[in-house]
Amino acid sequence: MTSSIMDFFGGIRLFSELAPDELNDLLRAMRPAEIEAGHTVFHQGDPADSAYVVQEGHLEVLLIDDGKELFVATLGPGDIFGELALLGSDIRSATIRAKSQCALFRIDQSEFDFLRRNLRPAAFKLIRTIAMTLCVRVRQTNQQITHFVAESERTETTERIEKPLVEAEKIETGTTGRFFSRLSFWKNR
Amino acid sequence: MSALSNMLRRIALFGDLSEAELETLQKFARVHRCDAYQTLFDEGDPSPSCYVILDGKIEVYLGLPNGRQERVAVLGSGALVGHMALIDNQPRSATCKAGVRQVRLLELVREDFDRLFWDNSSFAFKIIDRLARDLVERLRSTNDRLREAKRGDRRTHGGFRAAAEALHGPSRLDEASDDLSPDTIEVVLPTLEERIRRRRKD
């Protein structure tokens, strides 16, 4: 590996804890990949079998919901994506599309598993750093859920009190409504 | 293989450890007891260690903004408690209390674990791998539930509770392991505690 590539990876936070020989282990498992502007690296729902590091260019992260595209984030040089494929995730959770011509490094799950099976420290240091980002996501999700649990509890308590009243009202207007429509039916005859 | 190693290997987290790695585990794990109804840790507490339940039940509570605590999960034998402590150094994300009887747990201290990890211990490597996979799995099932709960016009309390349970409850990693019999624990715990006592004397 050339020293400029070593420097590039050494500057990425995800790889910053690796010693040079460990970094080399990972680099040997990587393959360069080019992608044209507007092209998709993978689609949400695709089988997940590799992770990518962005060397050059920019890409967008999109969530597809009900056929609509929801923009989530932009990725640039030094960013990693698809890394959960290295940790047993089998389906892509988002779509990644190139905004410009991109130079990427691709690491296949099978190559990474080879490092894992051989207990290479590089693999586990990377896993540890990815796990730290997972913890951040778990904590964010936890806050979101706490908020929703509290909010839905409040709504349901209000509903329990108000619902019987609303239901009673509906039944009354319902009957009256039907009575009048029957009246007009007879009138129109 | 000793009865102790046999028991430890039934815990999914330790399922693929070699005999030597199980020895490492026995060298630094401690046995921790949490009395009935007592708090193991509170949400927001510092998190110096992670636990694996040997026997008894741990209840997981989320603190709501109105001050009420909602129980979102119950964990049993073999389950991990507070395992993010081995990965990052952030405060506890939930409150954990013992159920109606005393709970016995294996405690793994982060400081010890980190030392092993940076010494390239294969024990620590395998544990971090399992924990990371567990987090991926939890996030995936939690997000599935969360999406489900948000779908439609009725955002039910039950839906969000199910998401909370997916995040804090027993995971697939725990499920494989809920057959630690109380008898086995009675037999092996004294061995483990004896080892710990001996180690302290050394």
Protein described:
- The complex is a heterodimer of chains A (189) and B (202).
- Chain A has helices at residues 3-10, 20-28, 109-117, 121-188, and strands at residues 30-35, 40-42, 50-56, 59-65, 68-75, 80-81, 95-98, 102-108.
- By secondary structure, chain A is an alpha+beta fold.
- The radius of gyration of chain A is 27 Å and the shape is globular.
- The N and C termini of chain A lie far apart (92 Å).
- Chain B has 202 residues and is α+β, with helices and mostly antiparallel strands.
- Chain B is 46% helix and 20% strand.
- Chain B has seven helices and eight strands.
- Chain B has helices at 3-10, 19-28, 110-118, 122-150, 157-168, 172-175, 182-201, and strands at 30-34, 39-41, 49-55, 58-63, 69-75, 80-81, 95-98, 103-109.
- In chain B, strands 1-8-3-6 form a four-stranded antiparallel sheet. A four-stranded antiparallel sheet of chain B has the order 2-7-4-5.
- In chain B, helix 3 (110-118) crosses helix 4 and helix 4 (122-150) runs antiparallel to helix 5 (157-168).
- Chain A binds chain B through residues 84, 87-89, 93, 116, 119, 121, 123-124, 127-128, 130-132, 134-139, 141-142, 144-153, 155-156, and chain B through 62-66, 70, 72, 84, 87-88, 90, 93-94, 117, 120, 122, 124-125, 128-129, 131-133, 135-140, 142-143, 146, 149-150, 155-157, 159-161, 163-164, 167-168.
